[in-house]
Design brief:
Layout: E1 3-10, E2 14-22, E3 25-31, E4 42-52, E5 60-62, E6 69-85, E7 88-95, E8 99-106, E9 116-121
Antiparallel strand pairs: 1-2, 1-6, 2-3, 3-4, 4-9, 5-6, 6-7, 7-8, 8-9
Length: 122
């Protein structure tokens, strides 16, 4: 099964990075608020550049450049992909904190509408 990781990232602002393994890389979204487990809750998730799969285990200090700050693993585990289209990704997480069905839905919200998604607990 493919892996997922959520990394708590203290950069300019505290945020959480959701990463889903796909095609040998980690597809990534930055969320300004902590992930959740309550059904129906939503979080803004801004798509960011893919990361290498090895980054899933990274914890520590990024000293300069993109992402400068402290990173720690908030949750990790496996996931099962249920549906994928250009505007919708449905998956089941099997982590220590996050588990159950979630969806990433493409939206046109915010200052970067081309990168804006909503993470929803189903």
């Amino acid at each position: 099964m493919p892996i997922f990781v959520v990394q708590e990232h203290y950069a300019k602002n505290l945020h959480w990075d959701l990463r889903l393994e796909s095609g040998g890389a980690l597809k990534s979204w930055a969320m300004p608020k902590e992930p959740f487990m309550r059904k129906g809750m939503k979080r803004l998730a801004i798509q960011v550049p893919d990361h290498s799969k090895s980054y899933a285990k990274f914890q520590g200090e990024i000293k300069e450049g993109y992402g400068k700050g402290t990173v720690k693993i908030w949750d990790q585990g496996n996931y099962k992909l249920e549906e994928k289209s250009p505007k919708k990704i449905v998956f089941i997480l099997q982590g220590k904190k996050l588990h159950g069905k979630f969806a990433l839905i493409k939206t046109e919200y915010g200052s970067k509408p081309e990168k804006s998604w909503l993470l929803i607990k189903l």
